[in-house]
Automatic annotation (TrEMBL):
Coiled coil: 3-39
GO biological process: RNA catabolic process
InterPro entries, per database record: Ski3/TTC37, TPR-like_helical_dom_sf, TPR_rpt
Gene encoding the protein: Ttc37
Protein name (record): TTC37 protein
Stretches forming TPR repeats: 40-73, 562-595, 596-629
A Pfam family recorded for this sequence: TPR_19
Gene3D superfamilies (UniProt xref): Tetratricopeptide repeat domain
GO cellular component, one term: Ski complex
Assigned keywords, A-Z: Coiled coil, Repeat, TPR repeat
């Protein structure tokens, strides 16, 4: 076949394709290829015809062959792109992207509009496949091309906005390079807006700052963006709120951070981040109760802030609200999710604080939960403080061997760490090895003298070591006072100070003050509450005693605070207010229905109120619970006598006298009973017994 015949065959193939006679076109092309196997146009026509005949493999191979023959010719690449675009196969996306890339290369120096069309298609393809880096890089090429052509500022602004839209929803899946391209797009958008200030520009800035806040390593950029937005929009609180949240998360509580908190509260007193910031400031200033109040209020408005929950837990730990601290730590962990990078450090701190709170709570279950928390801390095995906490958890759980093993390893590996010696001290103290415990706590204090707990336990060691160390002012008392000075919220120390002043020094007034302080710090400390009430009564200060009792009973739920109900009931009994006494003693019995003495007191209250039948039942219930309560037996007989049940009363008096011959009230009662029934002459009672 001559060249002239080849051209004629190709012309015939083109005509056949135009007429949709694709099989005829294939015949002409194959005839050409017999003569010229690398004829570019023949292969392109075969690709087109085969595609129309739904012969995808032949079409693809033909187009590929053409691109190999003439790699810089457009026709085959265009045909291959069209073939892939129409293909129903799902595995051609990568090939199509390569074709688009080649077309961009071929169009770049020629048809710019086609270049833009292909570029848009390529970006859309990458976006569908979630290849965000390729999306960003390709779109940025488009923008650079437009800039090179001298595009208007407004057009470029829209193109940067489009790039943000393409990338903004994928920040969680972006690598650092993609993130940088997104942030660059934001910077171009906020700097190229036509109208500034404006609502649209303000919203763009908000989106930019929100995006920045998702990248923990972009702190400098975030602070600059917030400050720039505040300069443009001084009445808008959003950048300040984000900046505050950034400071919370970073833990960088500088003067700048504190100024930021104050400024936000000045602008909006109800701002959640502002209130949280004030709470953190209070925590720094050791105003722990104010800190808890503000942090709690702020977190009701801005709950998804793990750092704020951690600060709240810290404040609760400072005043020894350990259960509350555990709950706050749980909230912090829940809002934190699965952290990476710097936020992983925050998770470790939260877990450590949670474990510490659980250990302070004592108990086997709390110890088990503490161990689980410690196991989640990354690199815990290299931290002596965390290891010491693990040892304490083992000790609380009763695993003495495990606790001792941790202690020995710590003393070998970290002999200069206070916690190593403190753990050893806790173990000796629990085993009542007080001399060894003393040495350990002194070693711990030598290394960390400002820890109140170490002084407290050294004081307890002296308290139980011997009467001499208990009474020695330079021993137990001195350590308790140091602990109280270092931690004025440590209620248990004030309880032991109360014990010292009451039992050793004989100073009831000072003891009462210590017990009262201990109870104010820990309302669950019934020992201190009772002691404060008893000493107030002894000192004639009934107002203080009643104030304590009233406060406890007002807060008490059914079946709780028995001691307070009982004390106040007895007070009303002494002051001849039987109806009030009945109510309080009944409340005490709801907490402990088997308290015989309480039933006896309730009987007295009913008797004082004139409720004889219920008084009788109460006295009988008291003797059922404790048959040795002679007074209750006697009072039951006396009530029976009042009710006219003389024979029953006399019989009861006789029972008492059989056991306690000289019980004068029973003797008087039995004489009175005889007089009432005029039965002296017929009584079979042994006269000798009566004389006695």
């Amino acid at each position: 076949m001559s060249n002239k015949e080849v051209k004629a065959a190709l012309k015939s193939a083109r005509e056949a394709i135009r007429n949709k006679e694709y099989k005829e076109a294939l015949k002409h092309c194959k005839a050409v290829l017999k003569q010229e196997k690398n004829n570019y146009n023949a292969w392109v026509f075969i690709g087109l015809a085969a595609a129309e005949l739904e012969q995808p493999d032949q079409a693809k191979a033909a187009y590929r062959k053409a691109t190999e023959i003439e790699p810089n010719q457009l026709l085959a690449w265009q045909g291959l792109a069209s073939f892939y675009e129409k293909s129903k196969q799902t595995d051609v996306q990568g090939d199509l992207a390569d074709v688009y890339q080649k077309l961009l290369e071929l169009y770049e120096s020629g048809d710019k509009q086609k270049w833009y069309d292909v570029c848009n298609k390529l970006v859309e393809l990458y976006h569908q496949e979630k290849k965000y880096l390729e999306v960003a890089e390709t779109w940025q090429k488009l923008i650079r091309m437009k800039e090179g052509e001298g595009a208007e500022k407004a057009e470029l602004h829209q193109l940067w906005k489009k790039m943000i839209q393409l990338l903004k929803g994928s920040t969680q899946n972006q690598d650092n390079k993609t993130a940088q391209l997104l942030l660059t797009a934001f910077e171009h958008v906020v700097n190229s807006a036509d109208t500034v200030p404006s609502e649209e520009h303000q919203n763009l800035y908000k989106d930019f700052i929100q995006c920045l806040s998702k990248f923990s390593h972009e702190t400098v950029r975030l602070e600059k963006a917030c400050n720039d937005m505040m300069a443009l929009y001084p009445t808008v609180t959003y950048p300040l709120e984000v900046l505050c949240l950034h400071f919370f998360q970073s833990g960088a509580l500088s003067e700048e951070a504190l100024h930021c908190f104050s400024r936000l509260l000045e602008m909006d007193a109800s701002s959640g981040p502002g209130i949280i910031g004030f709470g953190i400031k209070c925590l720094q200033e050791k105003k722990y109760k104010e800190a808890i109040k503000s942090l709690t209020e702020g977190l009701q408005k801005t709950s998804q802030c793990p750092a704020a929950w951690h600060y709240l837990a810290e404040a609760q730990m400072k005043i020894h609200k350990h259960r509350d601290a555990v709950l706050s730590c749980n909230q912090a962990l829940e809002t934190l999710g699965t952290p990476e990078g710097p936020r992983l450090r925050l998770k470790n701190l939260i877990l450590q604080l949670k474990a510490e709170a659980l250990i302070k709570m004592a108990g086997v279950d709390a110890a088990e939960e503490a161990i689980k928390a410690l196991e989640q801390i990354v690199d815990a095995s290299s931290d002596p403080v965390v290891l010491a906490l693990r040892g304490q958890a083992y000790l609380n759980k009763g695993l003495m061997d495990e606790a001792s093993k941790v202690s020995q390893e710590l003393l070998l590996s970290h002999p200069d760490v206070a916690e190593s010696h403190a753990l050893e001290g806790f173990i000796h103290y629990s085993q009542k090895n007080y001399e060894q415990a003393e040495r350990s706590f002194l070693n711990a204090i030598e290394r960390k003298a400002e820890t109140a707990e170490y002084h407290k336990y050294l004081g307890l060691t002296y308290w139980f070591m011997s009467d001499e160390t208990k009474k020695d002012k330079g021993k137990a008392l001195t350590q308790f006072l140091k602990a109280a000075k270092l931690d004025s919220y440590l209620g248990s120390v004030f309880c032991y100070l109360g014990n010292y002043y009451r039992d050793i020094a004989g100073d009831k007034s000072r003891a009462r003050g210590c017990y009262k302080k201990a109870f104010e710090l820990d309302e669950a400390d019934e020992e201190s509450g009772e002691a404060a009430v008893d000493l107030s009564m002894e000192l004639g200060d009934t107002d203080t005693a009643l104030s304590i009792l009233n406060e406890v009973t007002e807060k008490a739920t059914t079946g709780t605070a028995k001691w307070a109900w009982l004390h106040r009931g007895l007070y009303y009994l002494r002051t001849d207010e039987p109806s009030k006494a009945v109510a309080d003693l009944q409340a005490a019995l709801r907490a402990d229905p088997k308290d015989a003495n309480c039933w006896e007191s309730l009987g007295e209250a009913y008797l004082g109120r004139g409720s004889y039948s219920t008084a009788l039942k109460s006295f009988r219930r008291a003797t059922e619970l404790n048959p040795g309560l002679v007074y209750s037996i006697y009072r039951a007989a006396a009530v029976e006598q009042i009710l006219g049940k003389y024979e029953n009363a006399i019989a009861t008096y006789q029972q008492i006298l059989e056991k306690t011959e000289d019980y004068v009230p029973a003797l008087k009662g039995i004489m009175s009973g005889f007089e009432c029934v005029n039965c002296f002459s017929t009584c079979t009672l042994n006269v000798s017994v009566v004389r006695k």
